[in-house]
Amino acid sequence: MDEGRNYQAIVIGVSAGGMAALERILPKLSRGFPLPVLIVQHIGAVADSYLPIHFSMRCELPVYEAEDKQPIEAGVIYFAPPNYHLMVERQHTLALSTEDRVNFSRPAVDVLFETAADAFGPGLVGVVLTGSNGDGAVGMVRIRQRGGLLVVQTPESAEAPQMPEAVLEHTEVDRLLPLDEIGNFLNSLSEK
């Protein structure tokens, strides 16, 4: 399913239990990992920029809060800022928006996934982790329609299984993996 494919980017959507889940994935990405990683973690509108600071101390890759019109660079982890949707433009730059909430969230996973699917097509890897609503399911359908790879955390390994379950109800996935196997799987996608 993923043999010989040329991947260009990874998008990750996560909500309740996300900090602990990301701690088991992002630090496993090896130095020199060639793909950008764009993340929507549901956070409060007035949250600070703690996530990029926290993970920059734990990851070998550079970690940033996404900025509007920023070019997407290989081997960089980007977090959606509080109270902004994170989107990918066709020129592979980031865009931020204060449009209405989607699935009661801003940032919303579906917004990132749908725009990234349109920008990267079959070169996109979508990952849905723990979360307590259905955000991400519609976006994963779009990634599937554009030929991307779908990876979902097993509901039984998720602190909140609703987001993984919603994806499984909406579309077929390529990999259904326990949390502790996802980081190594992502590393394997970049190995020739």
From TrEMBL:
**Recorded GO terms, molecular function?**
phosphorelay response regulator activity; protein-glutamate methylesterase activity
Question: Its catalytic activity?
Answer: [protein]-L-glutamate 5-O-methyl ester + H2O = L-glutamyl-[protein] + methanol + H(+)
EC code(s) of this entry = 3.1.1.61
Q: One of this protein's GO BP terms?
A: chemotaxis
Tell me the domain of life. Bacteria
Q: Indicate the segments forming the CheB-type methylesterase domain, all copies.
A: 3-192
Identify one Pfam family in the record.
CheB_methylest
The record, for CDD domains, names: CheB
Sorted keywords for this record are: Chemotaxis, Hydrolase
* Catalytic residues in the record: 15, 42, 135
Q: Where is the signal peptide?
A: none
Mind telling me which InterPro entries this protein's record contains?
A: CheB_C (IPR035909), Sig_transdc_resp-reg_Me-estase (IPR000673)
Is the keyword Hydrolase assigned to this protein? yes
Q: Does the keyword Cytoplasm apply?
A: no
Any Gene Ontology CC annotation: cytoplasm
The record's listing under PANTHER family reads: PROTEIN-GLUTAMATE METHYLESTERASE/PROTEIN-GLUTAMINE GLUTAMINASE (PTHR42872), PROTEIN-GLUTAMATE METHYLESTERASE_PROTEIN-GLUTAMINE GLUTAMINASE 1 (PTHR42872:SF3)
Q: What is this protein called?
A: protein-glutamate methylesterase
